[in-house]
Amino acid sequence: MKKYPKIYLVLLLLCGIYTSAFAQKPTLKIAKLKYNGGGDWYANKTSLPNLIRFCNQNLGVNLEKEEDVVEVGSPEIYAYPFVHMTGHGNVVFTDAEAENLRTYLISGGFLHIDDNYGLDKFIRLEIKKVFPELDFVELPFSHPIYHQKFDFANGLPKIHEHDGKAPQGFGIIYEGRLVCFYSYECDLGNGWEDQSIHNDPEEVRQLALRMGANILTFAFTNY
């Protein structure tokens, strides 16, 4: 219980985030999740700085220019209203880490998981440790996360081919609140990276950045 007030104080700062007045409020930070198991949690090094820059320019928010790194089991996770997770490979949460992540999420935090290709079979097992009573559910295209400042009538944009499947957005919904959004077969993070890294057309990068801005906006205003 001692952990709760810290995140609640952070979340109080988020009231009215999507207004021009937010520019005068203290700068907020978001974080990338560091996990064990051998997977490359550190992938897409330019993605979050580019997304942050896009949001600061297009949403009128005031996010710190660089993301922090936070470990799954760290009490520092409660300082961040939004945590991003990515990678290609293995993920392992200990029981203590799973409990910490669960408490963070049900206390008002938000986790965005972006499959960088190969993450799916691992992350589903580990999230089950966090919410054994819940399953990922596919969100309908009408879900508000697709209709923030930018409208995505057909859900997630397709950024990279991977297995050629249609992109899907899954969620963990706890007591009526979306606490975790999982973008699968899409690879938003690659789209956020510098254009020179993957040579994505600029129009594709813009789609990825706009969807990322929607996710951040939703996370900041629906807690």
Low-confidence stretches: 1-24
Could you state the order of secondary-structure elements as H and E?
A: HEHEEHEHEEEHHH
Average pLDDT for all residues: 88
For the record, what is the CATH homologous superfamily label? Answer: Domain of unknown function DUF4159
In the CATH hierarchy, the architecture is 3-Layer(aba) Sandwich
Q: How many helices does DSSP assign?
A: 7
Distance between the termini: 18 Å
The major pleated sheet works out as: 7 strands, mixed
Number of strands: 7
Q: How many structural units, i.e. domains? A: 1
Measured by DSSP, the beta-strand proportion falls in 15-25%
- CATH topology heading: Rossmann fold
Strand order of the largest sheet: 2-1-3-4-7-6-5
By secondary-structure content and strand pairing, the structural class works out as alpha/beta
Helix content bin: 25-40%
Per the principal axes of the C-alpha atoms, what is the gross shape? globular
Radius of gyration: 16 Å
Give the CATH level 1 class. Alpha Beta
Blueprint (SSEs and pairs):
Blueprint lengths: L3 H10 L17 E4 L12 H12 L9 E4 L11 E5 L7 H12 L4 E5 L4 H11 L6 E2 L29 E7 L2 E8 L3 H5 L2 H4 L3 H20 L2
Parallel strand pairs: 1-2, 1-3, 3-4, 4-7
Antiparallel strand pairs: 5-6, 6-7
Helix pairs in contact: 2-7, 3-4
Describe the structure.
This protein has 223 residues and is an alpha/beta fold. Helix content is 33%, strand content 16%. The protein has seven helices and seven strands. The chain has helices at residues 4-13, 47-58, 95-106, 120-130, 188-192, 195-198, 202-221; strands spanning 31-34, 68-71, 83-87, 111-115, 137-138, 168-174, 177-184. Helix 2 links the parallel strand 1 and strand 2 (68-71). Helix 2 crosses helix 7 and helix 3 (95-106) crosses helix 4. It is globular and about 40 Å long.
